[in-house]
Design goal:
The complex is a heterodimer of chains A (454) and B (582). In chain A, the strands form 4 sheets. A 6-stranded mixed β-sheet of chain A has the order 6-7-8-3-9-10, with helices on both faces. A 4-stranded antiparallel β-sheet of chain A has the order 2-1-4-5, with helices on one face. In chain A, strands 11-13-12 form a 3-stranded antiparallel β-sheet. With 454 residues, chain A is of the alpha/beta class. Chain B is mainly α and 582 residues long. Chain B contains 22 helices and 4 strands. The chains are: A alpha/beta (454), B mainly alpha (582).
């Protein structure tokens, strides 16, 4: 685990208050299609204490939602234990409520009925149920909407119902799974502020909150401690204490510095890059299962490079994301792809276009396809493996099954399909090979004189 | 998104004044209650097998009573199907081990031509309820049930396994009890599929109702025709009399029944079920029903709500001891292993023993040497099914496309076609038989037409649905690009309609196989026409009471249906799913 001391935050140390949820040495693996275990979480230990807000920050594939579900007692870890107030879980965590990304409201129940659901489950009588639900509904700004159905509400109002439903049972701890990411920027901003306002009220019954997010600023705005998770498999890469006073100002210099620092961590920049982070691949190295292709379209990546070139070839990633109103999950795959293909480089949360990248942006469509084809075949292991295998056959044709089997050694069934789809998309763009969806056959394109590799 | 302030709760609770809608609804309720009481008394009429107490009269004044008896049978069967659906579907979706057995069983049950087993069911239920018409009643209801239950169960099972994961998580997180989970999450989230399938089931059920009311019962090996009072047996009697006007009146009454249940029950139900849609986007043409609107304006909903609330509370309390809808995360590995082994040994043992006993029985009584002959008959019927599918396709695909592409036309045509599909074509057979006799048409050819009569509508219905789902921009594109008629059909229309056509084709073929049992032998007055085929064989064997031969023929027919489904329709379906789904 990389510990990181930042200028604005002290050394991470959990607060001295009693712990509510204790996670110790949790690993979680799913079974890959060919029977071998696929690790999703690797040796995670953390704790949630009274009086704090903790953020689990990671990119897609970091297993952060899986970890949250282990904490909630919805799924069992493969090894290690999760305990609530000292008792190991073997079923849904009795002391927590959860707020879902997709709200998870029952569309056939009214707002009031949805809110009362948890109380009804506890067997609370109708009169008391109504009273308590009304109190929470008032508190969360839903009064007047009691008899509305969820589909009549906007996304922001729906998530308010989600919060009301979670809080009415007065949980010990509140777990949130990307609660704001399905909302537009302004609504999310507003709801976050409301949540902090509730949290600061002296009679707020919930003692701790834990939020899963991929939004760096969101984590820095809300959390007292941030766990940054790395990908494939998910492990804690850094624990950052973040004790700015509330309300936090995102234009504050220290705030910006912390965001930058986390960006660097998440793009696997200069500070201790662990395995499975996309750095410029050395030509001809790495296997398709070691270096997965980032989920990026060629169009998206060249768009990013064009913007970068227009901005003078170098830019601050947080700034870029902010200007484009991109989320980390949208932007980083593009950055990864550009980095993998040697068209851009990332250092300390700064992205810089390379000479190849400049050539790629400046060239006409045919020429840029040639550059792309060359780089993809050199540096993207799966694309290279497909080209080589196709060349080794007599008629330059192979069924997709061959490559799917190859990928199954290192990926889940869903990822296997995704990896091959990305490779096919890249191969088609570079006119390296074509794919017939009906027959499932990959066919080598007639070799282009300039693209042919030695 | 538009935010609509809904009516405040207080206004609903205000004592409403009596409106005209209330009077109408109250009258209907009273009528239904009275009929229920009346029917309940007549069901327990004493009956000694061999002496039918009631002769079916073709007197018109009896017809309303017969129609209600039939309707009651249909609804009892539907209620049983619903109950079965909840138990079986939930077990298949929730019990890990049971799932591996229950789902294939359901798949097979769906492919079995049910009419084959009517005589068997009859004997069973007569033994269960001796000396009472109740046995016949039960057998008839059972046959209708078997025609209704499977697709409803599949729908429920499918809804359960595709339930949004976060709703499952929320239910566990908020610690719902088992009953709360079932009643607040499982049933509502599958409601739309259930209602639609119940409607389809009801349509299919009419056919089996009419076929199961006039039956032959075997007492000491002697066949005895016995009728249950109902619309089906009325038609049988009218045919025996050879009276065309009475047959026509029967047909009209049937149409009224089909349209009536559709209008008064299923349209309102379908419109009501819309509130259970999980996706939050609403499509432009949500089903509407004037009956439902009437009901909603009346004070029935609030009265019903007040009346059922204590029941709901009681159920909630009674079911609480069954525990939470939660399962332990970690299972004892050895115990699980032991359970697995026991389960599979048991299942394997029972199925092996059953297969062995069945084969031995067939071999002893029927003899395996007869099977080539049965398969030969099967191929003759199969040829009829193929011909009718081809002809229906050639006729109804162009018509369906025409209707479907015209939004105005399809809005009117779709309910009509739905009624046509629900109408039991078997009621038309006598009239057509009359024509066959007059024109000296062999039933060997005519049977194809009879089978087509009921089956073709499924193709038309689905093609209309497919054509009306072609997105507007695709239509505009093909007009804009001046596609020739040929190109438009080849590149736009046929591919778009294809997935729907396949669904219709499967249903039509399944219906045709079942129809062959009543279409390959028909009677009018004193003359009976025969067509060579497996359906005819089954029909003859069931009036002769040779159960073993019946079983043999039934197995052969099931094999045909299952094999054709697997090698032909399923492949088309997969192709449609992967390539042609819009």
């Amino acid at each position: 685990m990389t510990s990181l001391a930042s200028t604005s935050a002290g050394r991470p140390s959990p607060p001295a208050t009693p712990s509510i949820i204790e996670v110790s040495h949790v690993t979680k693996s799913f079974t890959s299609p060919d029977g071998s275990p696929l690790p999703v979480l690797d040796d995670i230990s953390l704790s949630l204490h009274e009086g704090e807000i903790v953020a689990l920050l990671g990119r897609s594939g970091s297993g952060k939602s899986t970890l949250l579900r282990c904490l909630a007692g919805l799924i069992a870890p493969t090894s290690g234990t999760v305990s609530y107030r000292g008792t190991p879980l073997n079923g849904a965590n009795p002391g927590v409520s959860m707020v879902f990304q997709s709200f998870a409201l029952l569309p056939w129940l009214t707002v009031a009925q949805n809110v009362e659901l948890g109380l009804e489950a506890q067997g609370v009588g109708p009169a008391e149920r109504k009273m308590r639900a009304e109190a929470v509904i008032d508190r969360i700004g839903l009064d007047g909407f009691e008899s509305a159905f969820p589909k009549e509400l906007s996304g922001g109002m729906r998530q308010r119902v989600g919060f009301a439903r979670a809080l009415v049972v007065e949980p010990d701890a509140l777990l949130m799974d990307e609660p704001f990411s399905a909302l537009d920027v302004l609504t999310a901003l507003n709801l976050r502020a409301e949540l902090l306002r509730l949290w600061s009220e002296p009679d707020f019954p919930t003692k701790a909150m834990l939020i899963v997010t991929h939004n760096i600023e969101e984590a820095v705005v809300l959390a007292d401690r941030i766990f940054v998770l790395g990908s494939n498999p998910g492990r804690i890469r850094s624990e950052i204490s973040c004790m700015f006073p509330q309300p936090r100002n995102r234009h504050d210099e220290a705030f910006g510095a912390l965001v930058d620092q986390i960006y660097t961590l998440m793009t696997g920049g200069s500070t201790g890059a662990p395995a499975h982070v996309w750095t410029t691949a050395t030509p001809g190295e790495g296997s398709p299962t070691e270096v997965p292709l980032p989920a990026a379209t060629v169009g998206g990546m060249s768009g990013l490079l064009e913007i970068l070139e227009a901005r003078g070839g170098r830019d601050d990633l947080p700034q870029l994301a902010h200007d484009l109103t991109f989320e980390v999950d949208d932007l980083l795959p593009l950055v990864d792809a550009a980095q993998l293909l040697g068209l851009a480089e990332v250092e300390d949360a700064d992205i810089e276009i390379t000479d190849e990248g400049r050539g790629f942006v400046a060239a006409d469509i045919q020429r840029s396809k040639e550059i792309f084809a060359r780089e993809a075949e050199d540096r993207a292991p799966l694309v290279r493996a497909i080209c080589r295998s196709l060349r080794a056959t007599k008629d330059g044709t192979l069924g997709e099954g061959f490559f799917l089997d190859l990928l199954r050694r290192g990926f889940s069934e869903e990822e296997v399909r995704q990896q091959l789809d990305i490779a096919i998309q890249w191969g088609r763009y570079g006119e390296l090979f074509d794919f017939d969806a009906t027959t499932g056959q990959l066919t080598l394109e007639p070799p282009h004189p300039k693209v042919q590799s030695a | 998104m538009a935010m609509r302030r809904s009516i405040p709760v207080r206004a609903v609770l205000r004592r409403p004044t009596l409106s005209s809608a209330d009077i109408l609804v109250g009258a209907l309720l009273l009528a239904i209650l009275y009929i229920g009481v009346r029917l309940g008394r007549s069901l327990t009429v004493n009956f000694t097998p061999g002496h039918s107490t009631e002769r079916i009269s073709t007197n018109l004044s009896n017809l309303p009573y017969y129609a209600l008896r039939s309707l009651t049978r249909m609804f009892i069967a539907l209620a049983l199907s619903t109950l079965f659906t909840f138990v079986y579907g939930a077990a298949a979706a929730r019990l890990q081990r049971a799932q591996k057995v229950l789902v294939p069983i359901l798949d097979i049950l769906q492919s079995i031509p049910i009419l084959v087993f009517l005589p068997v069911a009859l004997t069973f239920f007569l033994k269960l309820f001796p000396n009472s018409l109740l046995g016949l009643e039960a057998a008839s209801i059972f046959v209708i049930f078997t025609s209704q239950a499977w697709n409803m169960t599949f729908s429920f099972y499918h809804s359960l396994i595709t339930q949004p994961i976060e709703l499952d998580e929320a239910a566990r997180m908020y610690r719902l009890t088992k009953w709360q989970r079932f009643w607040k999450l499982d049933v509502p989230s599958s409601m739309i599929g259930l209602v639609w399938n119940a409607m389809m089931s009801m349509g299919g059920g009419w056919f089996f109702l009419t076929a199961s009311e006039a039956v032959t019962v075997f007492i000491h090996g002697k066949g005895q025709p016995i009728d249950l009072p109902g619309i089906g047996s009325y038609m049988g009697a009218a045919v025996k009399e050879g009276s065309v006007p009475k047959v026509l009146i029967g047909i009209v009454v049937m149409i009224i029944l089909v349209v009536g249940t559709n209008f008064l029950l299923f349209r309102p139900l379908v419109a009501w079920a819309e509130k259970f849609r999980v996706e939050t986007s609403t499509s432009s043409d949500t089903p509407r029903s004037s009956v439902l609107n009437l009901l909603r304006r009346s004070s029935i909903p609030s009265l019903l709500g007040r009346a059922t609330r204590p029941i709901g509370r009681g159920l909630d309390r009674i079911t609480r001891p069954f525990g939470l809808a939660e399962y332990p995360l970690a299972l004892d590995a050895t115990r699980k292993r032991f359970g697995d082994i026991t389960f599979w040994v048991l299942v394997g043992g029972v199925s092996l023993w059953g297969a062995y006993a069945g084969l031995a029985y067939l071999g002893r009584v029927v003899g395996f040497s007869r099977f080539p002959y049965l398969f030969g008959l099967g191929f003759i019927t199969f040829a009829r099914v193929v011909v009718l599918i081809v002809i229906s396709t050639l006729i109804w695909v162009p018509v369906g496309v025409k209707i479907g592409m015209d939004p105005k036309l399809s809005r009117y045509a779709q309910p009509v076609v739905q009624v046509l599909a629900s109408f039991p074509a078997i009621l038309l057979f006598p009239l057509i038989t009359l024509v066959f006799i007059d024109l000296h048409i062999s039933l060997n050819i005519g049977a194809t037409l009879l089978m087509m009569l009921g089956a073709q509508w499924y193709i038309l219905f689905n093609v209309i649905a497919g054509a009306s789902s072609i997105p507007n921009d695709l239509r505009e594109m093909s007009a804009n690009m001046h596609l020739t008629r040929r190109l438009r059909w080849r590149r736009v229309i046929l591919p778009a309609v294809f997935p729907y056509y396949v669904t219709g084709g499967i249903t039509a073929a399944g219906g045709a196989w079942n129809a062959s049992i009543v279409a390959e032998i028909v009677t009018w007055h004193h003359s009976t026409l025969h067509a060579k085929g497996l359906g005819n064989y089954i029909a003859v064997q069931s009036t002769d009471g040779k159960f073993a031969f019946l079983l043999g023929a039934g197995v052969v027919m099931s094999i045909f249906v299952v094999v054709v489904n697997r090698v032909y329709w399923r492949r088309l379906y997969q192709l449609a799913e992967s390539r042609y789904s819009l």
